[in-house]
Amino acid sequence: MGSDFQSYKVLVLGDSGVGKTSIVETFCGNKYKTFDSTINSDLKCKIINLNGASIKLEIWDTAGQERYKSLTPSFYRDAMGVLLIYDVTRIKTFEHIKGWLQDIKEYTSPHVSIVLVGNKCESSDRQVSLDTGNKLADMIRLPLLEVSSKNNINVETAFMTLARGIEEVIKENVGFKLYKTLTYKCKPSSLGFRIILSEKYRKMLLQSMKYLVIPLHM
Ligand SMILES: Nc1nc2c(ncn2[C@@H]2O[C@H](COP(=O)(O)OP(=O)(O)OP(=O)(O)O)[C@@H](O)[C@H]2O)c(=O)[nH]1
Ligand SMILES: [Mg+2]
């Protein structure tokens, strides 16, 4: 597996038992079964294809139980995306979403992308309707997806929605930063100019092309 993929660090957060591990395992192609409660955090990686580019998702499945929570601020800080999960069969987990959002706001970058996820949507034991979920999602301006890791409903869509959100943020930020660098460092002439970038930045530049066409032709 090449190591030059761009990687997106993603956290999976939510109360204990909402199905974080089950969702991650289902996304990674593993069979649905019962998992032990997560201690601290587990890392899983999956390569996805986003608009023709291979991206490595570094997925951190975290512990929902208070006594296992030991994530450091720096762990949160370099996260690029968060899947924030509640369980549609337990209203308490839904009521705790605002508390999780406060933690996310406090510890992560303001540019972090978040997707709200209501798990166990196949269950007939619901305590949180889709309508109630949508009302909260509208209020906090986040995309909401109801999923079922048990029946593999919408699990991939949730991760892809998050990855696209991260990609958008990167485009905006890299485009802006490179715009500033290029307009400061380069004086275009009739001969044009040549910019040498590392492979990492070349990829980011290509992904941000729509933002960079303007400065390159000024
Ligand atoms: N009905 C139903 N049950 C599910 C689903 N996903 C997970 N579960 C069950 O929910 C329970 C908790 O799942 P986990 O994936 O371990 O939950 P977690 O969020 O990782 O929990 P912690 O590691 O303690 O934070 C298990 O009994 C799962 O079998 C689902 O989509 N539908
Ligand atoms: Mg777990």
From TrEMBL:
Keyword list, A-Z: Hydrolase
Superkingdom field: Eukaryota
Record-given protein name: P-loop containing nucleoside triphosphate hydrolase
Taxonomic classification: Eukaryota, Metazoa, Ecdysozoa, Arthropoda, Hexapoda
